[in-house]
Design a protein that fits this description.
The complex is a heterodimer of chains A (437) and B (453). Chain A has 437 residues and is an alpha/beta fold. Chain A is 28% helix and 19% strand. Classes of the chains: A alpha/beta (437), B alpha/beta (453).
Chain lengths: 437, 453
């Protein structure tokens, strides 16, 4: 059995599956249920300053998009940070941590960008005995209008400044949660690092409008006919999150900085992908909100079974394993040649590969051969783009196969060169680096 | 049409037709089909399918594990509740259990294909030979298990997991019980029952002694004397008789014997079958016998049942399956006598029946169906022998919710008990739960008393 124990910036948990700071972690009742279900850790729903708590809308907070069978693909929300009294949260956190000493409990915090505010709340949080804090610089709705959340996360200097205060006023590990609503994720990550953060977590939700009611012309979720952008999450955002995690993982300035991966983790496989791209653990919200806390059983068993199958003994054997394979486009091997191949036994003759290629790509798939409906790759035209593979409804019916070195590429008439050659050396590149004579 | 000659004869079909007719009824889903089928599961909370399963398999979890590409993890989920999950995937009347309870059955009359998904995962696990369970440290305790059917096997496996040794005694030549002898051939092809027994025995600590019958080779008191606990998974050895004129004629056979002979036959052409066959009964045995009679090349097969369609024990799915194979099901007909010619069956005379004031009554009208073979499938019965003072209920062994009988150290489960339905999956649940109860009894008996003062 693979060892799933997780040590993230010194915070230990029996597995790498944490619940993200969000509605499911708003109070002891839910968090206790989550721990009973097997979650390794919980980031408590974001705490605000002492005083009157924030208020939420009294109508719909969530909007969604679905697949044809009502599978929830993306969720957005306009809920704010905890709307419960700070002291109530602190009291419950302390009790939960005492009840569950082997689980990770992290407090998410969002207070105004004022040093006194942070200095005031940190000792209160530390007194609960939680394992660490997560700085919420991510929420893109509501709180950002008040100069908090993503409004901070979008300004690297603010990030650095607040992280520095936190490192100064608490001994607890600091995880800085980043917003994806920014042009280049490396800048806030670098700022957090400069401030001395122990780790970053990402992504928080993406600013979004999920749909518009075409009868009332109100965006959804609709509060009496009006809507506001919400934070988008769930399976649909995973590719964006994976890229941002990878960008930080391979950036020279933030290389090997611990990352807690967040964004659409729904199955063990999603989690394994985040880990491979450099995450030390993952945080989950939408999957739990869709299926309940029990969903973690599939994640734990799936990750463990896969690790056993592949001979990975601990999480360290996986974390970062794909980072070295993420590179800039300019370094991709231009001598690598692949062609699509259609398995005629698997082909159900729907014609989608042909029309996708014919109308939108390279006219490299037949639709008829000898008067019979027949879909076959024309190697003289195929650039190996993979579109046919992606639109084919039958898995593994169309595959992209690399041409071995020495074979003739019928499209270019050139023999496949075994040597690696990229754009930086290509003769068509006016900036090409020419080897010294 | 000479191959359809009257009387009872084997070899009515071309050899290739036997292979075709007795091949897998529902071949295993391929990976893509399994992904599409598993994608339909809603991962319900407190899932109705799970509640409907006598072994309470975590169905939403195992289906989700299939959908996330983890069929081995899925098999572990299944087998941890039901070590005979492979056979249950084949023979469970899912249409009246998990799939009937499926919320998508309610919503759109098309449940998630739970049985076929269960088979997908368990087949993969068995093919890879992956074992999920290991024996605990040996306890030195030995349990006598009587009957190597689903109940006995499940009991022995769970007992072995806890470190006990199980000795299984079975009167027949091969282990497996009804899985080996009682299941329609097309539901368990490729010697599946034997392969499953081998898979289960791999845990170790289980010995099977065949050809050993309770009441003949040993008595219950012998067992209670010699073993730490006894589990009775005896099944139903007896078959009900018609008690009618002509029952002794050549060509009147018990359906269970016919099904067993067919299962054991290397060459299905060796099994003789009538040209026109009448099957008496309304349960699964009647359906299995009738369908297989048709598949052996009988020209006409008629099931006669004394009540209506709604009262048939066979599920609607099974009835439809029979109809699709060309079996004619006739209701409200009760056998009156079997007609013979030269000592062999020539036909059957039946009374028409009706419900009068809630009671089954003969209408007075009769009819005759010409036939040359009659297969009786009117129920099996528990035959007692060597059980001593064991308390019974409605002709079967009385057990409580922990499968305890009226005698200390003696547990029972499966069809021989009066608790639950007569189903493979119910027998597995009994066997498993009895082993847990036995384990508790054995370990608590082994604990020294702790002084508190």
């Amino acid at each position: 059995m693979a060892d799933l124990r997780n040590n993230f910036v010194g915070i230990k948990s029996p597995n790498p599956f944490w619940l993200a700071s969000a509605p499911p972690t708003d109070k002891a009742y839910n968090v206790e249920r989550a721990f009973k279900a097997g979650w390794g850790g919980v980031v408590w729903k974001t705490l605000g300053s002492e005083g009157p708590p924030v208020v939420n809308v009294n109508g719909p907070r969530y909007g969604a998009i679905w697949g044809a069978d009502r599978r929830l693909l993306g969720l957005n929300n306009i809920e704010l940070i905890t709307d419960r009294d700070l002291q109530t949260n602190l009291r419950e956190m302390k009790q939960v941590k005492m009840n569950w000493p082997d689980r990770a409990l992290v407090a998410s915090i969002m207070v105004p960008c004022v040093e006194e505010e942070w200095r005031a709340i940190l000792p209160l949080v530390e007194e609960t005995g939680v394992d660490g804090i997560e700085l919420n610089f991510g929420c893109p709705h509501g709180m950002s209008e008040r100069g908090m959340g993503s409004a901070v996360g979008q300004v690297p200097e603010y990030i650095e400044m607040v992280v520095r205060w936190c490192k100064q006023y608490t001994r607890m590990p600091v995880i800085t949660k980043l917003t994806p609503n920014i042009s280049d994720i490396r800048h806030p990550a670098r700022a957090a690092k400069r401030g001395g953060t122990d780790a970053v977590s990402l992504i928080n939700t993406i600013s979004s409008i999920v749909s518009v009611d075409l009868d009332t012309f109100s965006p959804n979720p609709s509060i009496g006919g009006k809507g506001s952008h919400g934070g988008y999450c769930g399976p649909a955002v995973k590719p964006i999150a994976l890229n941002m995690v990878a960008e930080i993982a391979r950036d020279a300035e933030t290389y090997r900085m611990p990352i807690s991966g967040i964004g659409g983790v729904t199955t063990w496989r999603d989690a394994a992908e985040f880990l491979a791209l450099g995450a030390g653990n993952v945080q989950v919200c939408t999957a739990a909100m869709t299926y309940g806390f029990k969903i973690v059983e599939e994640m734990i068993s799936g990750l463990s079974d896969w690790m056993d199958e592949k001979g990975h003994k601990t999480l360290d054997d996986i974390t970062g394993r794909a980072v070295g394979n993420v590179t800039d486009w300019q370094f991709l091997n231009l001598n690598y040649v692949a062609k699509a191949h259609i398995d005629q036994d698997a082909c159900i003759k729907c014609g989608r590969c042909h029309i996708a290629c014919e109308d939108t790509s390279h006219q490299a798939i037949t639709q008829m051969v000898d008067g019979v409906r027949y879909f076959e790759v024309i190697e003289e035209e195929c650039v190996g783009c993979n579109l046919c593979v992606n639109v084919c409804p039958v898995e593994n019916c169309i595959t992209l196969e690399a041409l071995p070195a020495g074979d003739l590429d019928k499209r270019t008439g050139k023999v496949v060169d075994p040597a690696y050659a990229n754009w930086t050396q290509h003769p068509n590149n006016p900036m090409a680096v020419v080897a010294a004579e | 049409m000479d191959r359809l000659g009257s009387g009872i004869a084997g070899g009515r079909l071309a050899p290739a037709d036997y292979d075709k007719n007795f091949s897998d009824l529902h071949p295993r889903l391929d990976r893509h089909e399994a992904l599409v089928a598993s994608d339909r599961c809603y991962f319900c909370h407190d899932a109705p399918c799970m509640t409907a399963c006598p072994t309470a398999i975590d169905i939403p979890l195992f289906i989700r594990q299939i959908s996330t590409g983890n069929p081995l993890g899925s098999a572990r989920t299944i087998l941890s509740q039901n070590i005979l999950g492979g056979m249950c995937a084949r023979v469970c009347p899912t249409e009246t259990l998990c799939e009937e309870a499926c919320v998508r059955h309610t919503a759109e009359d098309r449940p998630v294909e739970i049985g076929r998904l269960q088979r997908y995962a368990t087949d993969i696990a068995m093919e890879t030979g992956r074992q999920f369970f290991a024996r605990a440290a040996e306890t030195g305790k030995t349990i006598a298990v009587i009957g190597a059917g689903p109940a006995g096997l499940a009991c022995a496996h769970r007992a072995a997991m806890h470190g006990h040794t199980a000795i299984i005694f079975d009167a027949r030549e091969k282990p497996g019980g009804l899985n080996e002898y009682g299941i329609a051939t097309y539901k368990a092809t490729d010697d599946f029952a034997k392969r499953e027994v081998d898979y289960l025995l791999a845990i170790g600590g289980i010995e099977i002694r065949t050809g050993q019958a309770l009441g003949r080779d040993f008595s219950l008191s012998d067992l209670t004397r010699d073993y730490d606990a006894v589990f009775l998974g005896l099944g139903l050895a007896g078959v009900n008789a018609l008690g009618l004129e002509g029952e002794d004629l050549a060509g009147v056979d018990d359906a269970v014997d016919f099904i067993a002979a067919l299962r054991q036959a290397e060459n299905k052409a060796d099994i003789p079958i009538g040209r026109r066959v009448v099957v008496l009964g309304g349960g699964m045995t009647a359906i299995d016998a009738a369908i297989q009679a048709k598949l052996l090349g009988a020209e006409g097969v008629t099931i006669c049942y004394r009540r209506g369609k709604e009262q048939m024990n066979a599920s609607e799915y099974e009835q439809d399956l029979a109809a699709s194979k060309g079996v004619l099901i006739r209701h409200w007909l009760s056998p009156k006598r079997i007609l013979g010619r030269d000592g062999t069956v020539a036909g059957i005379e039946l009374d028409y029946t009706a419900l009068r004031d809630g009671h089954l009554a003969l209408t007075g009208e009769t009819g005759v169906i010409a036939c040359d073979q009659v297969l009786k499938a009117i129920g099996q019965s528990f035959t007692t022998s060597g059980l001593g003072a064991l308390a019974m209920e409605r002709g079967k062994i009385l057990i409580d919710e922990h499968c305890r009988t009226s005698l200390p150290k003696v547990y029972a489960g499966g069809d021989c008990t009066s608790r639950g339905e007569d189903l493979t999956v119910q027998a597995v649940a009994h066997g498993r739960d009895a082993a847990e109860a036995i384990h508790l009894q054995l370990v608590s008996a082994g604990q020294p008393a702790v002084a508190v003062a």
